[in-house]
């Protein structure tokens, strides 16, 4: 196993920071590595705590009387200079249970009300997003959405369109559009499963 010798915080931003890691690999080779993290300081990095508390939450929900539409957002992302389809998602606030965070984020981004499902913890525990560059992890909350779409609670910095996509639209999106990978895999389940969330049983 590699050995970490020193960590330096290089930026001081609100939502994400860059850290430099000085290490030695298992082959005794010097390593200079950079990690983007939601951690506010070095002691809070997952490499220091050994914990995997979720930084964020991703919401896979279906909508409608027939439960035949999935709730997506089409969001402008500066990293792409364009739009990408994602699930509603957001950061978990300090001392907030991620299920509560999911309900809050769903309302803020879409105006919809989320009724979370109780599932096996293996399906909702936090998994890592892009481990080659960040220690960020996100939990997944599954559920049913209801109500009317509204942008009233969206932040001024966000550019979000709410999309209620049926299976035909999901097929088009996967074929033609930019899609976040975590969302794409779940959309493949949505296409395959006759009953929503069948894969959770």
UniProtKB/TrEMBL annotation:
It comes from the Bacteria. GO terms for molecular function: hydrolase activity. Its EC number is 3.6.-.-. Residues 50-187 form the Nudix hydrolase domain. Keywords: Hydrolase. InterPro entries: NUDIX_hydrolase-like_dom_sf, NUDIX_hydrolase_CS, NUDIX_hydrolase_dom. It is an enzyme of class 3 (hydrolase). It holds the Pfam family NUDIX. Its cofactor is Mg(2+). PANTHER family: NUDIX HYDROLASE DOMAIN-CONTAINING PROTEIN (PTHR11839:SF18), UDP/ADP-SUGAR PYROPHOSPHATASE (PTHR11839). This is NUDIX hydrolase. It comes from Blautia intestinihominis. The lineage of its organism: Bacteria, Bacillati, Bacillota, Clostridia, Lachnospirales.
């Amino acid at each position: 196993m590699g050995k970490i010798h020193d960590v330096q915080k290089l930026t001081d931003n609100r939502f994400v920071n860059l850290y430099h890691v000085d290490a030695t690999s298992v082959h005794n080779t010097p390593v200079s590595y950079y990690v983007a993290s939601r951690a506010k300081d070095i002691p809070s990095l997952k490499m220091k705590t050994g914990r995997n508390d979720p930084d964020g939450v991703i919401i896979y929900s279906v909508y409608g009387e027939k439960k035949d539409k999935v709730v997506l957002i089409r969001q402008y992302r500066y990293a792409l200079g364009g739009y990408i389809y994602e699930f509603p998602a957001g950061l978990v606030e300090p001392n907030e249970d991620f299920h509560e965070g999911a309900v809050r984020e769903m309302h803020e981004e879409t105006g919809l009300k989320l009724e979370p499902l109780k599932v096996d913890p293996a399906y909702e525990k936090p998994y890592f997003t892009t481990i080659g560059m960040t220690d960020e992890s996100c939990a997944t909350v599954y559920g049913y959405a209801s109500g009317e779409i509204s942008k009233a609670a969206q932040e001024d910095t966000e550019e979000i369109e709410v999309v209620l996509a049926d299976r035909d639209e999901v097929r088009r999106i996967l074929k033609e559009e930019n899609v976040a990978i975590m969302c794409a895999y779940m959309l493949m389940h949505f296409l395959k499963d006759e009953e929503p969330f069948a894969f959770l049983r």
